Amino acid sequence: AKEFLIFYRYTTNVALNDNGDQARLIDPGGKVVSMLSYEKARRAESYSLVDNTWQWTIASTPGHENLLIRNIGAFGALDSTVVSTIQAGKQMGDGAIITIAGEVSAPPRSLSARYFYVQDDSAAIQVYCHSCILPELIPGTVIQATGKLSGDTSERRLIIAGTENIYVLNYTEAPKPKKVDIVAIGEITESQYVIIRGKVTNTSGDTFYVSDGTSQARILVRNRSVVNKPTLRKGYEVEVAGIVSQYRGEFRILPFSRGHVKIIHRTGQKQQNRLPNSGSSGLISLALTTLIWNILQLAKRQLTKLPKRC
After folding, report:
1. What's the confidence (pLDDT) of residue 310?
2. φ, ψ for residue 208 (rounded to 5)?
């Protein structure tokens, strides 16, 4: 009771028409409990029940209380530059109003309630909103977003005024992390969803460092309950996935989902119940050991048979 239940199109395959439709809520007995109809839908708006009245609102708040917002956001009223790629947008000057398109890699609330990450084939960028409740966007959701570019001296981000500056275009499969060498962690992979492999060189709380022998990366686990970070020791070989983030000039990887930190090999772990090598050297070693043991046992029996001297 008094909970929010969300039915997404990609799970139900139920689609409502933009030129008008009807939705019904039916109980298990087949009785219509609630029903509503609407005429032509407004683009990028939600038909929501607010104050016991169905109304169009630009605030889409899945999993939260409905909000009635009709004003256009600060950036929605301005002309923006539609960029062909995220990389082209990131190269524009600080303060530029741009419109980008891409698929969600790290969704809202996986790292922070105020931002999420979007990527395309060229690059990736953080989409940030200071005061709005970001919608539920699963990885693979293709969106269009309009906002102000910021962060010339730190991680580039697209600052949006509200949820009205986000428009869902499509749904695809969740993106997979890009395998990179640790030396590549930096400007060229900023905001991208990557995966690395190496050995733990140091660990302290929710921070640890991984090296592949030539370079080292800092890993920061912000939500241990979600990531399910295992206990790590120096020398462990691990595989780590996450978003490349920059903070005060330092790049680090932020895991954001279960299984993003995996132990490949525990250095120094005792190997039990292991048989000798099946090769010839292993068989010879086993035979010699058995022969020596038999000789010692035979000598012991012979000594016990000798007559005692008075």
Report:
1. 44
2. -150, 165
